[in-house]
Amino acid sequence: MRLATWNVAWFDRLFDDAGQPLHVAGESARYGITRAARLDGIARVMRALDADGIVVVEAPDTGGRRDGVRALERFAAETGLRAREAMIGYPSHTQQEIAFLFDPDRISARHDPRDSARAPRFDLHAGQGETRITWSKPPLELAIETEGAVLRLIGVHAKSKAPHGADDPEEMRRIAVENRRKQIAQCGWLRGRVEDHLDAGDSLVVMGDFNDGPGLDAQERLFGRSGVEIVLGEEAAPGRRLYDPHARLALAHPVAAQPATARFAVPPDWRILSALLDYAMVSPDLCARHPRWRIWHPFDDPDIYADADLRAALLVASDHFPVTLDLDLAGKTRATA
Length: 337
Hints:
The chain is of the alpha+beta class and 337 residues long. The protein has a single domain (2-326), classed as Deoxyribonuclease I, Chain A (4-Layer Sandwich), CATH 3.60.10. The protein has helices at 35-49, 68-79, 169-199, 220-223, 227-232, 245-252, 284-287, 302-306, 308-317, and strands spanning 2-7, 53-59, 85-88, 97-102, 108-111, 123-125, 132-134, 140-146, 149-157, 204-209, 262-266, 271-275, 278-282, 292-295, 323-326. The strands form 4 sheets. The protein has a 6-stranded mixed β-sheet, with helices on one face. The longest helix is centred in the middle third of the chain and has 31 residues, at 169-199. The relative contact order is 0.15.
């Protein structure tokens, strides 16, 4: 089974209120790239991924007249994707949903959040006092069945740490620290969910955009560790840790060249910054089955670079690149439905 996670930046901007893809030359939320070009690029990439299930981060909005599931299913039908059914969990109020697009001939999926004493709901206490921190994009918690196996999957879009709205260096630092605090609180909540699933003996995949990574920014030193390390359980016993090889490489060799899943043009000179933000973490039992990971980065993967059409599609589609996880689940039945 192949699972994928991909942040398709502002996917919502590419659909009208009826969920119809907008194959027009208008603004697409990516500078200098039309809606039509982005839709063509996204379709090309998703066909190449050929995934049984895709966690779509920044999926089309659900709210008011807009329906993200309708938009994704129309896009899948139009482009001939076998991952053609969609679902979301709790809607976001940010016009950026977390959705799951899947092949119903290969897997079945249902939204199945669990009650938890460790992480009972989507608002969190962080630090001292009564300050309450919430998930603006509630994680998508799924039960997935395929080939006689049952998995738990949590799709994630954690808080961005970018200091949007800052007018001076001091304000930039204050906002960045506050955003980091929120991001750490969200990841602490998520680790509580992970602990619950490990206690239950579930096979677990946690994947999505964490807006974070080991050693990614200066604020991490104020908090001692990254949100990614918290979710992985780096301070837990080995049998309680999640695994992602790209996170492991970043943790083990912080001054070496790092894998990247995103590239952004950064002001004031708009040079390109690469970052590892997107992950596919697995529980120890799945790790023991030797899964295969791939970052679909057009400049870091020689086979993708050699495919000129796919390379171009990845660059126009989004400022993030997909991460795929291939799992061999033959004979795998250990998980709770």
